[in-house]
Design brief:
Length: about 550
Amino acid sequence: MNRFHFIVAVVAAVVIGSTSIASSFERDTHYYTTYALALTTCFDWEEAHLIASADVMIDGSRGTVAELNPTHRHNKAAWHAFGHTVERYYELWERVLLEQREELRLIAFGQFLHFLQDWEAHAGYPVHLGHAKATILGHDPDSMARSEARTRHSIQATLDHMALLCREMDRLPDGVEGSDQALEMFLDQVMGERLIRDLIDASDPGWRNTLKGKLTDRGVHVMAENVHRIERYLEQQVAPLPDKNVPADFEPGSDPRGIPEPIELDFDSDGTLLSDLDLHLEGLGRHPEDDHLDAADHYVRVVRAKPTRKGWKVQVEVTNIGDKPMPAGELVAIAIDAVQEAHLGEASVQIAEMQPDETRSFKLMVPATRPAETALIGVSFVSPHDRDPYNSDVWHVTAEDLDELEAHVAAYGHLHGVSRIPDDATLEIVAAPRLWLTRNGRLCAATLARGTSADPTIHVEEPGYTLTAVDGAAIGLNGVVPTVWTITPSNPGEVPAVKSYACFDLEDQLCGNIENQGGGARLEVSVGLGGIRRNSGVELGADLGEAISRTCRSRAGE
């Protein structure tokens, strides 16, 4: 008998029609962090609830969840940004701007944010199998700690588009001119309060790893810590603001009185709401009763998987550890070639309604069209009217299997992307830097650039800034804030621009040098992409120079 290595992967059980979220441990980004960022910008409690619910329910809705089967790719590309399609980015953004009903616009915006946030996390991963292998090996890209740079890109991109929508809705903060200045304020608040830093520190790319086919205690701890940190931020920074309409009984760390559960929005494959919006809005903003099912309370695990000449004999155990009945559905097992990332075969069995604490065991024979040296067996529980299993990326492997997959990754290349910039890469600075003076007396610049590369994991390099006097002499710049490039709209049909910020403190030496220039000093910016470099610059101008002089004199006590 031919023997071949196998890896068993388990996808957590989810239940359609409840508030279970397919990728439950993405909720810290797609739900809780989005909720906090919306409240930080121009949205109130109920609006933030709707935006964040639409964001996370892309993972929890029957029509938009990422497909487990590698031959089915629509949702992975259309809603989860695998493949980085620029056309889809503009399509979803235009969909937000064109929606007339406010509640539907906020839902469309939340759906767009899911794509935008995944744009960073999923960059470079293939469309067919996504980041399954990375998750198996403890490099889950949906963890905030997997890449601090990507997390910061995602946060700034989210706030940037929130600022753009605030401008569209005529809701920019008083005294702020344009979305760039609003974004600087929003970033300053969330970064100044260490919200993002603390979330990254608490996270762990291996939080989904398990050898028993269920969520680990580590994952539960990470989620609880991040949710509590976000709720403390809201209590300190948002709750005191009357226009945010935070419930009077809001209490961090309290399930009934903390951030409410997501609204049960269900979408078709085009993102259209399948249920009556007005019914959802009736309870919007309240803390719901504990009548929902939690994905972490319902799981599937593989007891054993034995390779045969015809495929795999798989024994699966399904457990309902929640306190509500688990609706009837279908258990689906799929065999995937872990190297070629191709579909090998699948089998399914019907499951009747299960009561709390009930466990059942099922045996499936998963046929294989051909053997594979290393195979993934994905198992998922789905509603009977859904053909595509949910993909929550909670995987089960043995230590030996991990070693085998590590060897294949080493032999067949990196987990994602390519390691060099293609020869046909291009780079341009879209416009000269935009300059302004912040309320707390910092000189800020926003730079837009456009860089193209066949590798979506490569970003334009961190820009360099130089302030020069009228005679060309360099003026010292101090206190530069770390810069991050993030995707931002340009003209539809073009490669989107990337935006970066830099803010400089007006210290004594800088004040003196700028005041002597009469607005003629120039801020020069240099950006790069591999061996390509581009430069641009702009004069401070008389009005900005005078504003800087007033700020400097005020600091000096004049």
